[in-house]
Amino acid sequence: MAESTRNATLNIDGKLYELPVHSPTLGPDVIDIRKLYAEADVFTYDPGYTSTASCASTITYIDGDQGELLYRGYPIEQLAEKSHFLEVCFLLLYGELPTAAQLEDFETRVTRHTMLHEQMQYFFRGFRRDAHPMATMVGVVGAMSAFYHDSTDINDPWQREVAAIRMIAKMPTIAAWAFKYSIGQPFIYPRNDLDYASNFLRMCFAVPCEEYEVNPVLSRAMDRIMTLHADHEQNASTSTVRLAGSSGANPFACIAAGIACLWGPAHGGANQACLEMLREIGTPDRIPDYIRRAKDKDDPFRLMGFGHRVYKNFDPRAKVMKQSADEVLGLLGIENNPTLQVAKELERIALEDDYFVSKKLYPNVDFYSGIILDAIGFPTAMFTPIFAVSRTVGWISQWKEMIADKEQKIGRPRQLYIGKPRRNYIEVEDRR
Ligand code: SDX
Predict the structure, then answer these.
(1) Contact 229, 390 (CB under 8 A)
(2) Are 332 and 375 in contact (CB under 8 A)?
(3) What is the rounded CA–CA span in Å between residue 153 and residue 197?
(4) Which of 423, 420, 404 is nearest to 56 (CA)?
(5) What is the reported pTM?
(6) Is 249 within 8 Å of 153 (Cβ atoms)?
(7) In Å, what is the CA distance from 106 to each residue of 79, 159, 224, 337?
(8) Are 253 and 244 contacting, i.e. CB atoms less than 8 angstroms apart?
(9) d(CA 206, CA 219)
(10) From the CA of 300, how far away is ligand 1's center (Å)?
(11) DSSP 3-state assignment of 18?
């Protein structure tokens, strides 16, 4: 990072401290507090990291007020319309859009890593059939550390590259096999003559008894959903991957940690929770009661798929997803899908309600995605695994950037201690 040319002055009890200010390519300036504790014997306090930049990054930029999302500088709307997921993977991993030759080589490398070590299938069989696919994915991805020893040395750039390709290539197979196992159907192996999204759909929905024809409308929708979910700056699961990686843990263990964090309903689990909420609402006339509950401080209910830590305007991914939902359901002849009607009416009512307007709560990426995934034929339990498949490239790109960042060191936050002061041990007979 370039040397700072400006300082911020902090006054603590009359003593002044000069803190360097760094200016980004885009977005807010940052105040560099790395020397603050050593010089002023104070910590900063920021639970949830609402005002804290954890790293310098060149990968993704979000402007929450403008509702802007850029992957390596390219707007998400343009990538969703003109690009495709593996090209976006190349862009996120290497920083530039590939030439035709680079793209062909990258797609070939990914395609040839889609199979799992044959012995790994026994991990799936160790789970109950009704295990949530996310539980299976956390377990199987973590177990990859035990199978792919030749790509776990984080200090070897070539092994980091191989681990990245393996993760991107194998996650669809792992997610599809977790799904197949949960419904008692045999595993379907990847095919090298299919594109990434089509391969994933076939592994999920084909059966050995007959040929499976990939519907191009569905594979295009699947590919676009993957692009929209590919990366998103320093969100909770990406920060988890970076923190795990900062200790030197191998990439498979770090991605398994990211999957675990993504599972939460406040994060990637919201797409499943949102569709289940829309189904529970059922009809537009029941919406006002749910709006009332979402506004009631004594009711833990939140409008799933609404709100965002960064976006205080429309999530640009939600806009693209809404257009895609209309297109896909229209092409499938189910444009009158009741859940889509409830979603659109819920969005309309919420965006006219002062509570949501004043708190700048808009639909996020999870609000419409479930409607498309449901129309493609996925059960709600597969929604977050699909988010994990898509976000793997973001996680691994951010992990690679963190490993190569000379300023990075093991992540170890401090705390505001509000517990008991020092006190002596009390023998059990003296306790009250
Ligand atoms: C993702 O970070 C990322 O980039 C994540 C993600 C990615 O691509 O990686 O974009 C993916 O996780 C999208 C978010 C999916 N989650 C949901 O849809 C769950 C519902 N949303 C909320 O739980 C919430 O909006 C969060 C978790 C997304 C954001 O929470 P914040 O930033 O901590 O905001 P907050 O909880 O402090 O809320 C601010 C206010 C609160 O009211 P007050 O205490 O100020 O009175 O808004 C209210 C909240 O109660 N509020 C909601 C609400 N979201 C926030 N009220 C009702 N319904 C909601 N959905």
Answers:
(1) yes
(2) yes
(3) 30
(4) 404
(5) 0.95
(6) no
(7) 18, 16, 19, 38
(8) yes
(9) 14
(10) 12
(11) strand
Q: What is the pLDDT of residues 303-316, one digit of tens each?
A: 999 999 999 988 99
CA distance 321 to 222: 11
Helix axes 366-376, 383-404, angle to 10 degrees: 120
Q: What is the pLDDT of residues 171-218, one digit of tens each?
A: 999 999 999 999 999 999 999 999 999 999 999 999 999 999 999 999
Q: Which residues, including other chains, have CB under 8 Å from residue 314's CB and lie 6 or more apart? A: 67, 362, 363
Rounded Cα distance between 344 and 63, Å, is 25
Q: Cβ(274)–Cβ(370) under 8 Å? A: yes
Check residue 148 and give its pLDDT. 87
Does residue 312 line the site of ligand 1, with CB under 6 A?
A: no
Nearest CA to 388 out of 133, 194, 191 is that of: 133
308 is catalytic: yes
What is the C-alpha separation between 404 and 409, in angstroms, rounded? 11
Q: What phi, psi does 367 have (nearest 5°)?
A: -75, -40
- Ramachandran angles phi, psi of 60, nearest 5°: -130, 140
Catalytic residue among 223, 308, 315, 374: 308
Q: Ligand 1 mean position to 86 CA, how many Å?
A: 30
Other CB atoms within 10 A of residue 25 CB? 7
134: which 2 tokens? 């996310």
Asked whether the beta carbons of 135 and 127 are under 8 A apart, the reply is yes
Angle at 239 between CA 82 and CA 23, to 5 degrees: 75
Ligand 1 neighbour 98 (Cβ under 6 A): no
Query: Would the pLDDT of 401 be above 80?
Result: yes
Ligand 1 pocket test, pick from 231, 271, 302 with the greatest ligand atom count within 8 Å of Cβ, gives 302
- Predicted pLDDT at 240: 98
Please provide residue 17's backbone torsions phi and psi, each rounded to the nearest 5 degrees: -125, 130
Confidence of residue 151 (pLDDT cuts 50, 70, 90): confident
